[in-house]
Design a protein that fits this description.
- By secondary structure, the chain is an alpha+beta fold.
- It has 2 domains: 216 residues; 163 residues, Glucose Permease (Domain IIA) (Distorted Sandwich), CATH 2.70.70.10.
- 54% of the residues lie in helices and 14% in strands.
- The protein contains 8 helices and 12 strands.
- The strands form 2 sheets. Strands 1, 2, 3, 4, 5, 6, 7, 8, 9 and 12 form a 10-stranded antiparallel sheet that branches. A two-stranded antiparallel sheet has the order 10-11.
- β5 and β6 form a beta hairpin.
- α1 runs parallel beside α5 and α3 runs antiparallel to α5.
């Protein structure tokens, strides 16, 4: 009998210890962080489903615009094609803005739905806690009594046995309540984590919306300027192209002279080992329009590349395409050569220094989302593609450098780029991006 009493008492004490820990863990479960509206979860899910259908339709429409723009990309010397491409770009960006707005609305409804689920779950937690607390109180009344004391406290043996039986059932129910409370708490934590992610996504989408609005303004401005400069004359447009090419040629010569004067020699040991997958692609859809080095285009146009070959890889993407960091690193340069009239260069550009001895360049952007000193992670959006600087059509110029051989330099003496800042490098520091992607 004493052994049975000892075992019973230790069982109760063990349960009490577990319960005490659980009450500490779940103590703050009742606090609600956001009030919910009266819409039911079913109503909210219906709204989400409708938005999802709209999003799929818009994504299909955007892909159609992308295909038409890509088709026109090979006709960059035709004014009519350029104007048509800009019109399509505006339509695509308008659709993207609507898509982003739908995603923002979906995120808001998702947060509202999660709020409702969190509220319901917190009520369940409160109910489970009351059940556990009630059982705890009853067990606590009996936890300091031995088996003989429990028996002697009743008038008859049958009532004593009945009391012991109820106590055993109560212990089993308590364990069930604790298990239920634990599962409910896990659901609560899952919903709160999902809500925080939805809120983070909402912030990203709002930034993306602002970027797209800037990109559409850029495309519209480019079209208006082109029409004003050419008066819709193909011959006038060709004259502008020739002038830009001559300015580009002059700048390339200045750039080569600057690079030689910097003496940025790179030892072989300072060039990171080439390996596929070191860098991630900076755009989601990969369509390479020009490769690195002495490609057919670069060797056929020495007036553009001075016979030194193409210093990066060009990705054919329309204006407003998200550009992503190829690797975690720190932003060491942000510039815009278009601020200097006649400076036919990178336009809006960003350079990121990585910890593995590599640096990456993203040029001809329409929007820049980062500043010097920012730390960015692999795949994070740093801006939107564009057609700024010297460009024969919308694309992203992606350059990879050995960090030891590249320096961001301000042009103090230049025919058209005085005051502009761009990355300059020793020829040995230019690396083939495809060797690291």
């Amino acid at each position: 009998m004493q052994f049975v009493a000892w075992r019973k008492k230790n069982l109760v004490n063990g349960v009490l210890l577990v319960l005490t820990s659980l009450l500490i863990i779940f103590g703050n479960a009742n606090a609600q962080d956001v009030s919910t509206q009266n819409a039911t979860p079913t109503d909210l899910q219906s709204k989400i489903d409708q938005r999802s259908a709209d999003i799929k339709s818009l994504e299909k429409e955007i892909l159609q615009y992308e295909g038409q723009i890509n088709t026109l990309a090979s006709q960059a010397d035709s004014l009519n094609s350029i104007i048509k491409s800009l019109d399509l770009t505006k339509k695509k960006l308008t659709a993207q803005i609507k898509l982003t707005e739908d995603k923002i609305a979906t995120a808001k409804v998702s947060i509202q739905k999660l709020d409702s689920q969190i509220s319901d779950t917190e009520q369940t937690v409160s109910s489970d806690k009351r059940s556990v607390s009630s059982a705890f109180a009853i067990l606590n009344q009996n936890s300091d009594k031995s088996l003989p004391e429990i028996i002697l406290s009743h008038d008859s043996i049958s009532s004593s046995l009945d009391s012991l039986n109820k106590l055993g059932i109560l212990s089993a129910n308590l364990l069930d309540d604790i298990s239920s409370l634990n599962k409910t708490k896990m659901t609560l934590n899952y919903n709160k984590t999902a809500k925080e992610k939805a809120k983070s996504d909402l912030t990203t989408l709002r930034t993306q919306l602002n970027d797209q609005q800037s990109a559409i303004a850029s495309a519209e401005s480019e079209k208006n300027q082109l029409l004003a400069d050419t008066k819709q004359s193909q011959s006038a447009y060709q004259k502008i192209l020739d002038q830009k090419m001559a300015l580009k040629n002059a700048f390339e010569q200045e750039m080569q002279s600057y690079e030689q004067s910097l003496h940025l020699t790179v030892a072989r040991t300072q060039i990171p080992h080439a390996e596929s997958g070191v860098l991630s692609y900076p755009v989601d859809v990969v369509r390479i329009t020009q490769y690195f080095g002495n490609t057919d285009f670069s060797t056929a146009n020495p007036q553009i590349y001075n016979g030194k070959g193409h210093t990066g890889v060009d990705f054919g993407v329309s204006i407003g395409t998200p550009v992503k960091a190829a690797l975690t690193g720190q932003v060491v340069g942000v510039g815009n050569t278009d601020l200097y009239r006649g400076c036919e260069s990178y336009g809006k550009w960003i350079m990121i220094k990585h910890n593995d001895g590599l640096s990456t360049l993203y040029a001809h952007l329409s929007v820049q989302d980062v500043s010097i000193g920012d730390t960015v992670s692999t795949g994070s959006i740093i801006g939107l593609s564009g057609n700024t600087g010297y460009s024969t059509g919308p694309h992203l110029h992606f350059g990879v450098y050995a960090t030891a051989g590249v320096a961001i330099t301000k042009f103090v003496n230049s025919r058209n780029c005085k005051g502009a800042t761009i990355p300059l490098a020793d020829f040995s520091a230019y690396l083939n991006p495809l060797s690291y992607l």
